[in-house]
Amino acid sequence: MNLGQWLGLLAIVASIYILWQIRQILLLLFAAVILSTALNRLARRFQRSGMRRSLAVVLSVGIFLAGVIGFFWLIVPPFIEQFQELTVRVPRGLERFNIWIEQLGTRVPQQVAPYLPNVDSLSKQAQPFFERVLGGSFAFVTSSLEFIIKFLLVLVLTGMMLANPHAYRQGFVRLFPSFYRRRVDGILHECEESLGKWLTGALISTSVVALMSMVGLSVLRIPAALALGVLAGFLNLIPNVGPTISVIPPMAIALLDTPIKSVLVFVLYFVIQQIESNFLTPYIMAQQVSLLPAVTLLAQVFFATFFGFLGLLLALPLTVVGKIWFREVLLEDVLDRWQWGGKRDPTGLDSLCGLHDPSKTKENLSNSDDVTSQERSIVDEFSPGVESKGEES
């Protein structure tokens, strides 16, 4: 390798290192792209009705902010109320437990009574747990502040992109060579359409899951059924992991009433998850975007491992966009146009029959006597298909 090649390799390694260091910023930028894509589609709908672009953008952002505020207004107060109720019920439960232990101590042999637990011994054993909970509460507050800052950053970036999306798009396209810019612009358009379809499918799936959860919890007389249903719908945006997390809050709230209700809540969410996984998502996502389940799961594991919770949340749209770039650039523009010996061979028969010898083309193999029976059989088998492709082209 000469000096220029070494410098090129060093530049590639340095670029990968820099991109890795700013990976969280890149994820926030991608989140802003997704949000701006959704709001831009909404703004276009308003524009079709005769509304100006600026007013349509402001109205779209206002609707989004109203939805976010409404979401937290539905979710936060009921959970605070349930937490306050929990702080009242736990001491009562401990008092009843202590009375039950004392009654049990009068019925068991005297040799066993000293080994029975009491509230004091249990509180000493639970002290490390509560210390970890308090430490986790402090970490939760810190994480909440960090989340608010990141959310505001995404919101600002979204507003900037919505104000002049064409300029940002053209700036990205100009990063590529001039002969490839039209192609990149077409790929970006396809990514935008696919993200829009994914957002539509996710919105439908989220709404159905939220409605089923809300109705089921209302039938079981679980408090805050509306908030828990909305939370279940939102967490449904994270395949495989979200539904598992969404069942924990309603089960905990139901446990404050009776244990049997907690079991019924688990059964309810299990049924909803089966309906969503086996009927709802396959039908909706097949109409919008086609992703294999194994690819989705591996993408979640990959992005969650290397990018944390934000990577897990954005795993599906990242996979949708990555699939398009992989198919359009690597498969169609590179592998499908691979050339051998300076001549394009779309069927791959030159390299297959000629054993990687450019002088052995399909035409030479068909007319020459110096070929093996295996080569001639391959030519005889595939020649009609090659002719038909030539006629079509």
TrEMBL record:
Pfam families, per database record: AI-2E_transport
Biased composition range(s): Polar residues: 364-376
Segments traversing the membrane: 6-35, 55-76, 138-162, 198-216, 292-318
Main location as per UniProt: membrane
One cellular component term from this protein's GO annotations in UniProt: membrane
Region (Disordered): 352-393
GO terms classed as biological process: transmembrane transport
Keywords noted in UniProt: Membrane, Transmembrane, Transmembrane helix
Domain of life: Bacteria
Subcellular location: Membrane
Membrane topology value: Multi-pass membrane protein
The keyword Glycosyltransferase belongs to this UniProt entry's keyword annotation: no
Family, as annotated: Belongs to the autoinducer-2 exporter (AI-2E) (TC 2.A.86) family.
Name of the molecule in the record: AI-2E family transporter
Species per Swiss-Prot/TrEMBL record: Scytonema millei VB511283
